[in-house]
């Protein structure tokens, strides 16, 4: 179903006159050679015949091109606006009309050096499409010729004598050529190759004027379907605007009169060519009168084909009348100019053919593409990949790879962080023990010997009251120090190596400060790692968000419609990823919180250490030893914890891949079945076409036979008439003599027969002489109404020859007795 839309370019009017241009060509060498001279001249938009002074006959047109005008100018002026309208959904037709050799083919097709309207139009169509990214176009090209009133497909020579049909539901043009081949165009070069191949099939024969004269009307039809791009619409619920239009580019056969044809077959061609052109003239004439009279579109194939373009179905038309200024062609040129003047008076309505339903091919293709894209998406998703058709596909894949790398790096850092945390916790414990021991030692070293034992006991008590978090119980300083041997053992545990030498307690205390600083550096490192991890997490979130939005999961797009089951499966995959991410996020937060706690504990511990040793907290230093075995143990533990999750994920993916392979197999089977069905249908169609051709041939044979039978009948009728009018009484002597002559011959035949019979009876020794002889004269002798007198004379002659005769039965029933 289509709807005609008003064309804005017409400034409020829906009617538009046919645009008529006249194009002169230069006098050819051949014309000059035979003494032709120019008798027509153009001036502005007027054409006139040259007489001695000025122009006597004058015609005015929309454009008149002088002989030097090139094809590009003709295209730009006449055809380009029609091509652009066609891209906007308005039918367009450009004719080249004129006598043979006047330049029609030169104007329409041109040469490699000067391309004509057809190549220019195709190039412009593709240029405009490239400049319209918010629309999708589908171009199809068909090429046909009308030769001797038979319509042939130039793109498929096997398709001849095609029929024109009418379908009121057809968008843009209800008349169509049944079974014509249409090629979908992909580029300018492709289109020109198709046209060149079609041109090879054209019927040409030399005429008196043009060696390569076109003897047929050639029609190139470009069907343009246009549709808004769904992804370019601002409102996703808005209806896609679709249009369809037909651009006809027509090179007519020469319009010269029959007297120019040199032989019988050309005269026949001429009469057919002229039938189409004559009807075109009549149709144009009637249309130009603007009356609601009967217009004989059906009288010729050409006018029937162009009916949609010439009448109110909405079209823009341009006629280019090509003209030779040669004196010998003056009369034909005059006729061309008169035709052009009539064409100028035609008004046609101009409307855009908007497609309101899903019937257009482009709509079907769009649906099919959507469907295929959906299927492809599904296959790719199920295989754990991303849609190949997605222009961002490589980017998405890179993002996914980066995401995976980041995830791995994050996991590794988490492991490192955990190991560090454990080491910090252990160190904290050791530092506190170390700090208490150092305090006690110093006290013991400074105090008088009597107090040293009490101080050692207090230090031991303080060390035992310290919590892991670094809390020190109130009054710990007053507690009794541990024995020296205990302190030495504790510090040795902190260093993880070496013996503690009695008497070097201060040196140990300064070593403990070094440890504290190292721990602080590590804590600082940890804080920085936490920051880096947080930044990475944010980056990873952003990437996830990008992937979500690309797959329709992005913020606010959760309503994007998807196939039920497949969407669920996809959700599962995403959920796994999200859970994974959340898990890591929680880990990070915990690590963050813990490192904050650690920093606080470290600070408190440092202050306690400083207070215990009476030193500046900044100068306290403890030695530190790493424990790689423990870190490795942690890593293994973490990997073990992650395994079930990873295993589950892989398992789900593997299952999906299997399922998807099954689905792909089913789709492939369906495609194969369809192809087979199509090939069967094509076979049936070919058989039917073959049968139809045979029937046509037989029909023609029968018509031939019918003709000769009719001739025979006519001849017999004429004879019959002659015979019916036969009357001896009115016959001339001459005719009577002739008749009697033939009668005599008949009688002679009878006589011979009688003699033979008699001879036979004698030989048989039978009844003796013949008693009686009954004669029945044949119809040819009696039907003419032979007189009794003539008959009598004939019998007398018989008798005088010695034959006896008694009775003769006349064929009219009367008895005849001899004298
Ligand atoms: N405007 C022009 N400028 C130069 N040469 C031209 C022009 N028009 C036609 N010719 C030349 O005149 C000759 C005949 O032209 P063309 O074959 O286009 O005529 P035609 O009208 O198509 O003839 P036919 O009806 O017999 O096919 C060609 O050699 C062509 O190159």
UniProtKB/TrEMBL annotation:
| Binding-site positions, ATP | 98-105
Region of interest: Disordered: 549-570, 797-819
Keywords assigned by UniProt? Answer: ATP-binding, Coiled coil, Motor protein, Nucleotide-binding
Q: What region holds the Kinesin motor domain?
A: 17-346
Residue runs in coiled coils: 362-416, 685-729
Q: Which GO terms describe its molecular function?
A: ATP binding; microtubule binding; microtubule motor activity
Record has Coiled coil as a keyword = yes
The UniProt entry, under InterPro entries, shows: Kinesin-like_fam, Kinesin_motor_dom, Kinesin_motor_dom_sf, P-loop_NTPase
Bias type Polar residues, positions: 798-811
GO terms for biological process, alphabetical? microtubule-based movement
Gly residues composition-biased segments: 552-564
- PANTHER family hit by this protein: CENTROMERE PROTEIN E (PTHR47968), KINESIN-LIKE PROTEIN KIN-7C, MITOCHONDRIAL ISOFORM X1 (PTHR47968:SF33)
Q: Which family does it belong to?
A: Belongs to the TRAFAC class myosin-kinesin ATPase superfamily. Kinesin family. KIN-7 subfamily.
Q: What is this protein called?
A: Kinesin-related 11
